[in-house]
Amino acid sequence: MKTVTISDIAAKAGVSMKTVSRVLNREPNVREEMREKVLAVADSLNYKPNFSARSLASKKSFVIAHWHNNSNADYTSRVLEGAHQACRSAGYFVVSEQLSAPYYETASAYLDTYSVDGLVLSAPLADDADLLQFLLERNIPFVRISPGTQPGISCAAYIDNSGAAKRMTQLLIDAGHKHISFICGPPNHMASQQRIQGFQNALKGAGINCEDCPIYSGDFSVKSGFDTYTNAIAKQKQISAIFAANDAMAVGVVMAALKHGVNIPDDLAIVGFDGSQLSHTIWPQLTTLYQPVSEMAEAITQSLLERIRTGKIDNTPLEFETYILRRDTM
Amino acid sequence: MKTVTISDIAAKAGVSMKTVSRVLNREPNVREEMREKVLAVADSLNYKPNFSARSLASKKSFVIAHWHNNSNADYTSRVLEGAHQACRSAGYFVVSEQLSAPYYETASAYLDTYSVDGLVLSAPLADDADLLQFLLERNIPFVRISPGTQPGISCAAYIDNSGAAKRMTQLLIDAGHKHISFICGPPNHMASQQRIQGFQNALKGAGINCEDCPIYSGDFSVKSGFDTYTNAIAKQKQISAIFAANDAMAVGVVMAALKHGVNIPDDLAIVGFDGSQLSHTIWPQLTTLYQPVSEMAEAITQSLLERIRTGKIDNTPLEFETYILRRDTM
DNA sequence: AGTCAAAATGACAGCGCTGTCAATATTTGA
DNA sequence: TCAAATATTGACAGCGCTGTCATTTTGACT
C-alpha cells in the first residue's frame, strides 16, 4: 500500500504542493473553493499526514510533555487524560514524565535529548522556582495547573481555593459544629494558604472563636493526616469536625479515627478537598470538594497549543468551578 | 546556536556522513578506531540526533505506545514508569493512552493517525481477542504484561499466580485459619483462575476441607469486595480469613468489615494480592503480595525494543518473583 | 607477490513536508 | 479605465538523516 503524499493530492487536484500544505495547515490566503477541492481530494485518497516530515521541515516536534513530581497517580492520570483530550484533535502527542529532583537539571537533560514544543506542569512541580526560571530562560512555552506561586509568568488553571474552603467550612458550621480543626498542607504552598483563608473567613462570618479551631499542618500525605490526628487531635475531645486541605490527609484522619474507635460522622465529621478517587474508595466515603482536574488540564493544554500555534502569549488565568461531594463523613 | 548535524561531525572527523551514521546507530562493519574517533568528535561537538530526520529517512517513529483499559491509575503509572525506563536509554518515546471500547476500532483509528513502532499492552486489555487479532493481522509488534489468554502469541511478563496464591494461603493456614474464603476476579481472567488454583492447592496440602472455604467472585473493584463481604460473608461467622484476588477487593472487604465493627485482624484476617499503593494507604494496612510491576514493564519493553531492532521474534515468557508484604490485616 | 573474498567506507538520492520568495490573479481607488 | 495594492498561488530548495549500491581497503591464502 503506497503512502499518499501531498504531492499526490496536488497532482490530482491540479494545484501545487504548497497550496495543499496551506489547506492542510489551515493557513490563510487560500480561496474557499480551492480549500474544498483539496480537502475533498485528500479525503478521497485517504491521506494521512507524516509527522516526521512535517516536523523536520518545520522544526516543530508536535510533542507536548506533561511533567509532574506527584506521587498521586490518580491526580496525575486525570491531568494526563485532559491533556490527551486537547492534543488529540490538534495532532499532538503527549508524553507524561515523573520528573526527579533536582528538577531543572533533569529537565535540562531531558530537553537536550528530546525536543518538545511545550510543557504542562502540574502542582507542586508548577512551583519549583529553579525549574520555572530555567524554562523562562530557555524560552520554552509552558502552562501550569494550580500553581501556588508566581502567578502571571504563565497561563494557569485555577480554582477559587479560598471560596471553596469557605463553602465547605460553612457546611460544617451549618451542621452545628463550633470546634473545627483544620489540617493544612506545606506552608509555602499558596493553595493551602488560600484554603486556610477561606476556612477562617467562614469562621469569622459565623462569629466563631478562632481559638477553638486549631490549625495543624501536614504534608498532603495520608500518613501526615493519620499522624496529625493521632498525635494532636485525638486528645481534644471538644473538636467535632476536621477539615483537611486535601483528600489524602483527610483519609489519613479517617483511618486514624477509625483506629481510635471514633464514630464517624456522629462523633467526628471529616471533610477533604480534591474529589480524588481515594475519597470514595474508602469506607466511610469521604465528603470532599470536587475539582475538575481533567477539564482544567484540557483547557490549559488547549491554551498552550494556542500559544504555540499563534505565538501570542496570553497569561489570563483560567478559573474553574468546584462543588461539594457530600458523602458519609459529614 | 547552530544545530550540529552528522555532516559537521563527518567533516571534522574526516569521514563520510554514512560512517558517522553507522557509528551512531551501532551498525556493524565499522573499524574500532573509526568508531572511537567519530564518537569523540560527536561528543566534542555536543551532537544531539534529530529524531524527525531519522524517523523520516528510516520510516520508523521511535514511539512506543502503552495502551491500557484499567481504571487503576496506580497500576498503570507503575507500568508506565517501567516502560519509560526501558525507552529512555534507547531514545524512544512512550505515550500512554487509556483505550476506549470497542478496542480494536479505537486502536485502528489511533494507528491511522499516529505511527508507532510497538505496543505495550497491560491487563486486562492484553486479553482482548479482537484487539490481539487486529494487531497480529496488521503485524504490529506488541508485548503484554500479565496476559491471561493466548500465551505464545507475544512476549509477555508473568508472575507465578498459582504459586504465589499458594504461599499466601499457607501463611493463613499456618496462622491457624481453617475457614478461609476466597474472592476471585472475573471468571474469564486466567490469572484469577490460577490464583484460585494455588489457593485450593494449599488447602488440599493442609488437609483442609474445601467446603469450609467458599469462593466468591468479584470484578476486581473496591466496591465488589465491599459488596461481597456485606452480602455474602458477613453472616458466616465461622470464616476467620479472607483472601481477595487483588488489593482493591481486599480493601473493599476491609472497609466493609470495619463498617460491621469487625476487629481486624483478630476476628478476621484479610489479605490481598498486588502490592498496590492503596494497600498501605488504608488503615489497617493490608497484607498483600508484591508484584514487581514496574520491573516487569521495563523488562518486557526492553524485549519489545529488541524485537523492533533485530526483527527477531522470541516469545519466551519472562517470569518474575513476588513476595508477601506482611502488614496489619493478618 | 598475486588473487580473491570479505570488510569497510563513501557518494548520493530522496524520505514528505514547509519556508522563502517570486509570479500571477484579483481588488481597490482615483 | 488603469495603476497600485493586496490576495492567491507556485517553484524549488532543503530540513537531517538513512538506504542503496558502488568503490576502496584489508586480510587470508596460494
Question: What features would you describe in this structure?
Answer:
Two copies of one chain form a homodimer. In chain A, strands 2-1-3-4-5-11 form a six-stranded parallel beta sheet, covered by helices on one side. A four-stranded parallel beta sheet of chain A has the order 7-6-8-9, sandwiched between helices. In chain A, strands 10-12 form a two-stranded antiparallel sheet. Chain A starts with 5 loop residues before the first helix and ends in a 5-residue tail after the last strand. The first copy, chain A, has helices at residues 6-13, 17-24, 32-44, 51-58, 73-90, 103-113, 129-138, 161-174, 190-205, 222-233, 247-259, 277-281, 293-310; strands at residues 63-68, 93-98, 118-122, 142-145, 155-159, 180-184, 215-217, 241-244, 269-271, 288-290, 318-320, 323-325. In chain A, helix 6 runs parallel beside helix 7 (129-138). Chain A has three domains: 6-58, lambda repressor-like DNA-binding domains (434 Repressor (Amino-terminal Domain)), CATH 1.10.260; 63-159 and 293-322, Response regulator (Rossmann fold), CATH 3.40.50.2300; 161-290, Response regulator (Rossmann fold, 3-Layer(aba) Sandwich). Chain A contains 13 helices and twelve strands. Chain A is α/β, with parallel strands linked by helices and 330 residues long. In chain A, helix 9 links the parallel strand 6 (180-184) and strand 7. The interface between A and B is large, with 41 and 41 residues. The structure holds a DNA duplex (30 and 30 nucleotides).
